[in-house]
Amino acid sequence: xxxxxxxxxxxxxxxxxxxxxxxxxxxxxxxxxxxxxxxxxxxxxxxxxxxxxxxxxxxxxxxxxxxxxxxxxxxxxxxxxxxxxxxxxxxxxxxxxxxxxxxxxxxxxxxxxxxxxxxxxxxxxxxxxxxxxxxxxxxxxxxxxxxxxxxxxxxxxxxxxxxxxxxxxxxxxxxxxxxxxxxxxxxxxxxxxxxxxxxxxxxxxxxxxxxxxxxxxxxxxxxxxxxxxxxxxxxxxxxxxxxxxxxxxxxxxxxxxxxxxxxxxxxxxxxxxxxxxxxxxxxxxxxxxxxxxxxxxxxxxxxxxxxxxxxxxxxxxxxxxxxxxxxxxxxxxxxxxxxxxxxxxxxxxxxxxxxxxxxxxxxxxxxxxxxxxxxxxxxxxxxxxxxxxxxxxxxxxxxxxxxxxxxxxxxxxxxxxxxxxxxxxxxxxxxxxxxxxxxxxxxxxxxxxxxxxxxxxxxxxxxxxxxxxxxxxxxxxxxxxxxxxxxxxxxxxxxxxxxxxxxxxxxxxxxxxxxxxxxxxxxxxxxxxxxxxxxxxxxxxxxxxxxxxxxxxxxxxxxxxxxxxxxxxxxxxxxxxxxxxxxxxxxxxxxxxxxxxxxxxxxxxxxxxxxxxxxxxxxxxxxxxxxxxxxxxxxxxxxxxxxxxxxxxxxxxxxxxxxxxxxxxxxxxxxxxxxxxxxxxxxxxxxxxxxxx
Length: 693
Ligand code: SAM
Description:
Layout: E1 7-9, E2 18-20, E3 32-34, E4 40-42, E5 47-48, H1 55-65, H2 69-75, E6 81-86, H3 92-104, E7 111-117, H4 123-130, H5 138-144, E8 151-157, E9 162-168, H6 171-178, E10 186-191, H7 205-213, E11 215-223, H8 228-236, E12 239-245, E13 252-258, E14 290-294, H9 298-309, E15 313-317, E16 332-334, H10 344-365, E17 375-376, E18 380-382, H11 390-397, E19 405-407, H12 409-416, E20 424-427, E21 431-433, H13 435-443, E22 448-451, E23 458-462, E24 465-469, E25 475-479, E26 481-484, E27 502-512, E28 522-524, E29 528-529, E30 536-539, E31 544-545, H14 554-567, H15 572-576, E32 584-592, E33 599-604, H16 606-612, E34 630-638, H17 644-659, H18 668-674, H19 678-692
Parallel strand pairs: 6-7, 6-10, 7-9, 10-11, 14-15, 14-26, 15-22, 18-28, 26-34
Antiparallel strand pairs: 1-2, 3-4, 4-5, 8-9, 11-13, 12-13, 16-21, 17-21, 18-20, 19-20, 23-24, 24-25, 27-30, 27-31, 27-32, 28-29, 33-34
Bound molecules: S-adenosylmethionine.
């Protein structure tokens, strides 16, 4: 998922880079050994995770106190306070920082902790390492941790006050990502990547330059090391460095500050772009205090919630009531179809699933969603084949039991509580959710105001941002920023450039639950079914691209029931006894894009794109170093297809991060893969191809 970790083949179209990312699978694990005091050691690096027996006091001394966090968090007025760490390890530094933040930071402040890890510890190893620290929020952290798959994993903790970004990749790859847009965001850095003698890769001058370049003026750096080369490297990266007493047997350690008059960094710290940076905005806006969101389906509700978590006041408008259209089915599966091969689509959809799973889990934990009534994330059986080679997926997940497990037909039958026609995969974190209940839970925030049943709405550019009008051209609200999240009706918004969006009709069939239709867990076959939530099974769903009818069709009910009877043969007699013409259901239009990835991000200025990048038509491989022009403050989140439950959460978080000008929750490659502007670039390149035909 990350740039440095795959081989790239640029094809003629720079917006459609084909990535040979190799096979999907787990990362190389840490495989620690344990010393006599039960502390972890790395045989790979020949070093201990901690230098002394009192790991927590050592970490607090070197990193938390070494960064003067207690005083700085108490005074910090800008938000979030951003901490970076090389080497997540056991997560102890993070937990201590969270603890300090919770005790010291003022009301409304936020912490963003970005940590990099190449060899994650396994869950049981982490439990062992963190077991002495039950006074810290170890349970919350363990619950939120992603499986060891490469990528950027954002987690929202403490009701949104704390963001944890785990860059599961090599440190240099992560720092390339974090410095790509040239923004100095970090307030503090912890350098904790084993000793320089044992792990020189974590201390190279180039890496330290990037640390410097990513740091705001006045930012701190702290490390357990007192090595002269580290001190010199940090000084060359713009820090003034002091020695201070070390912890335990260590005589000294280092701390430093990035000077206010930042010295120029060597050329290596400002490398030339390796691709046309059309996704980086030319102009940056300051985070707005108010945002308008058009659309109260999953896409709109998630972006509203992500903005509200940042303290932004949001007005959500809808022509109808919330979740009235494609997000209105009473049940949907939160599920990820694994692929043996990595690609933009596979990486985005896995990252989105894991992010949304953690977010929904937190909504159940805090009581906003109720288990059984609003959903149940206690596992899903998949009997439909995964994308690509099933055997390869099966062997990849053998080391990822928290993600999926290969199961035979008997186990599938046992898990479902009724005969399954096939075996397949068990996804322990998947399950079903009620999308309308999810929307209601997301909108339930004091910073969000819902304005439903407004009739047809139009977003127009205003002198000071964006205004939303009703069908009689009355202005309902204005704000410096607006998000169009109106599903298949988004295309009607004149502010958007021409985008290749299509509709796909999908019909569900609703069947009353009964003892003749037993089901313990959700099932994804060629369609899907979940245990009856509030008395009904919502059986889905047909998928008819290009069909824009919302009428219920008997043949679609038949098709849903036939597929289900094939998957669950014991259900067949009861399903066959149903009269399809008497059944209830919903037929709605999903919005889909040609590459099946959603459209999420700033709305491009199409005229500027056409002129600035016109030369790509002549040579798509050339690098035009100019950044993209975007309509200031306008964003789009749509084309989730039938994946709204998992895509919309990460899409909302991405847009909220873009609006707030914060570090993004995705690597650049995936930000480009979902950017609406990709279609403008593709059109420029294609125009040339057609012209030459
Ligand atoms: N800060 C951690 C804590 O609170 O538990 C301890 C970090 S431990 C001393 C060093 C970590 O750096 C290990 O987890 C190791 O896997 C990781 N690491 C080593 N080399 C790395 C690299 N090149 N890129 C990313 N992580 C690396």
